[in-house]
Input
Amino acid sequence: MSSRKPTNMGEIEGIQTHSNSVFATYFLTFAPTDATSNPVTRHIPQATPTTPESHPRASVHRETPRHSVPDFDLKPQNGSQSYLVAECMDAEMVCCHWSDFKRHYLPFHAKLLDVDGCLEYLTQGPKPVLKLRGNEPLGSKQYHWTNLLDLPSRMRKTEGEVYKHLEEMFTSIRAYQLKRSYHRIPNKDREASLFEFRNVPHTNLSSWVPGVNQRAAETCFTADREGEMSPLDQTMTTAPDVKLTYETRQENRIQLLGDVSRLMSSDPRRMFCYAFTVEDDLITLWYFSKSHSVKAGSFSFINSPREFVAAMLPLCFATDEELGFDPKVVRLKGNSFLYHFPQEDGSDTYFKTLEALAEPRTLRLSSRATRIWKVVQVESPRNLKPLGQEMVLKDVWLKDDADTEKQIQNNLFEDIEAFARLPNRGDHPCLTYCRQQDKLALNHWLDNENYKSLFLSVSHEYIGPFSKEKVPEAWQQQGLFKIPKGRHGTDPCTTVSSGVDELETIPCDDSYWGTVEMEERNCGVAKKQCRFVFKEVCTSVHRLTKLGDAIAMLAQCVVALQVMFCAGWVHRDISSGNILAFRSTPDDPWCVKLADLEYAKRFSSDCARSDPKIGTPYFMPHEILAERLLHNPLMEMYANSGSIGAISDSDEEDFAELEEPNSEGREVWGAIKHNWQHDLESLWWILLYLITARIPHQPSRDWALQVFRNSHRLSRTREQVFTLKIYTTLSPSRVHEPLRPVMKYLEYLRDKMCEYYLRREREGQLDDPATYSGAYSMFINAFYKLLKTEGWQNINIDTLELEAQVIAIKKMPFDERKRERTDDNSRSDDRGGKSSRTTSNSVESCTKSAQLNVGSNKKARRR
Output
């Protein structure tokens, strides 16, 4: 029996089903073996584990830790996540005939000579697994399995006996020697993979990903014949049973989706994967990728041993890359990974992962699947000596015609530079209502390319291969996954519609804020894998330890958005995860880094239709989320006088008490384009989120849980928060006492934004840049005054308590979530602290454009 080593220096990972399946379900998933069997990595020494600091440094690095993400339930015992995935995936599955699947999706097409040769081989030996059906005419040989003469549902055999027969079948196919040469391996014979059938009943599988420990299926394909089992050691799991009903078929298909989704999310090497299910004697192959997923037509493996051999040969003799593994990512001993970046000059650059900063938890497989790592450059796969400081690696799937983040950033910088070179840029329409002091401060960022420091620096880029396109003969078919009655996975915090291109769930640790892009799905359009390495290791604004530091970053972000506005660009995905804080040493002040330019684009007045709904649901602007323009006739009193965008320098006039708006209003439907004020409005929602959901005050958290939901549907509660006076929906008694003065600024900004929206829409000025210029000065002025107030800057941002609450609520049954509010005043301590001025003393040099004499507490503890 021949075997080979993996071609990508990695292992082949598998997923598994549950042993309580009630019909035969095969999940064909290939996974790298343990690094000790890897000829390239087996001798790589493991670095001594250390705790990395928050600032870049060169040192000995620890293994890559993984974090359990409760929002995506990884425990197979809880099937709700599988039902939720099934609800989302049912709308995007396509089907094709088995002949088309065999031609288009299998690693290679087994030639007739090898199919016949393998069938003949299976009839030989002391214990043949295949026999001829009597005397057949020459050229029309018919075969039957030696020990599977009838349908499994009719056989009077135990499951163990069925497993044994399957083991004999696959072992014999693997032992066959191919006679013909196949593409991708020129001048070299293909060898069987190193996976063998293993019977592992009642076995628990350990996992290197916390929360993913699973019960083993009765059998699986693995490279390890002995020892402790892990999902990474598997390639195919089987759970045959002789009974079959419609309900059990649906349950197993749903479980298949759940397991495939967990696999594709947890393994950074996985580009696509295969699976197959067996429903009595009918075998069905599946293909799952980042662009589309397809189910092939079924055939009887009992009546058609020839088709079974033709299907299994390409899978048993495929290379690692043909089975969905990226050859540019290698799993190292100790569960860290090595990313390979080929350079244009032919050299190679390698980055070793240190820590997973964000992992995808997607409801649909055809998503961007954004994964973010803290990494360090190393010399080579054989020498993992760190070279230089820590950096950040971003791994994402984009549509084949989409610009990469580096290309977008280069285009943005070109347009900023073009504006900076204008001879009379101070008179440009985009600065019409900008205050003079703000214009002078803006000059600092426009001169000498200083604006580049407001964004992340891309040091390396890699564009991987394109995914496979959908077979032209495929058709869309819904209803493949029928959710059992009473077992729907829809969660009020995570909702999906048929128009969602991707919806990534929000992890409860908030390490990654999923972006929703709702547009017509182009199922089957090829995608490309894109990887970027950024020089700066930053902290998300909601991960800063002091509230004053976090709000100071929002103030600096206004400047970055103003620079983009001058260049004619909109960001379209402002969130607390995309506003980053960076400092080289713990004694340096925090400086903002605006990240994730994937959705950024030039604002165009020529758009024939509205933009797709894009953004993070928590912070999505009201008009974008509502998909209609804001129009309240009762606010006309504010729109009938004054120039749009003009603001006063007087504190009394700027923050005067506004008229109480009537609760009744009318909204006008219209084409919605993401404009510049929408970016600023997202900052307003982040500020509201920080002072309600991110501080240790239970009443405000209870309120926030009703407003901030990971849903693309606008709730009535959220609508009222923006369209009514802030005190109408958020009672001051719910707000942590030191933060109550902040509500004055929230209400001022909310009221002015509504006024600006109304005037533009009434006067047809939605595409006029001059009407947006005053909004930036308005935000700069408001944040400047807010950060000068005392008593709240040193309140701690308590993330762990928030996570625990969200997890507990998500584990509740749906109708039990409407619980009474519990006022936990014992936690509303005096974290406002004495040194509230510390935050507003050290960032002046970093925020010249906004004249925000605020900064970071130099003694803030390192994250």
